[in-house]
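Re: beginner question about structure tokens

> Can someone show what the tokenized structure looks like for a real chain? I only ever see the sequence side.

Sure, here's an example I had lying around. Input first:
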Amino acid sequence: ASLMAVCAWISIPFGYIAFTLQTFAVSLALFTLGGKWGTASVCVYLLLGAVGLPVFSGFQGGLGTLLGVTGGYLWGFVATGLIYWGFEKLCKPLGAILGLLACYVLGSVWFCLYSGGGSFVAAVASCVMPYVIPDAGKVYLAWVCGRRIQNGLTRNG
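And the corresponding structure tokens:
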């Protein structure tokens, strides 16, 4: 959860949603802790933000952020964890990718509802498309790092 906060603070402003390393941190938590504990860490992260700690992008916190225009993408991290958990035994990278897609869908639907019924296609165009390639790279990097961490824990544990 603390790594997710630090990675949220590393951001480049861009439209409604800043480029951050949150996707990397969420994916790394899942790849290293597993679906159950990785999802729990995402929930702890959101709980810390909900009580007002400035753990989200732009050093924001509070229910207003979780219920705001981009809150659906934060809630989508829970969906990412749950889907990863479901695919963990089958194919971890596939679970992470499908989880990220679910995060995109949930966040985009939330964005549409929050903005008064705007077009889903427009939400995807502005809130997802600019992030697909960077997010895919972050998931891949998290997978590589997670494997190394797991190998190190196995050898030294």
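Each token stands for a local structural state, so reading them left to right follows the chain. The chain has a mean pLDDT of 93.
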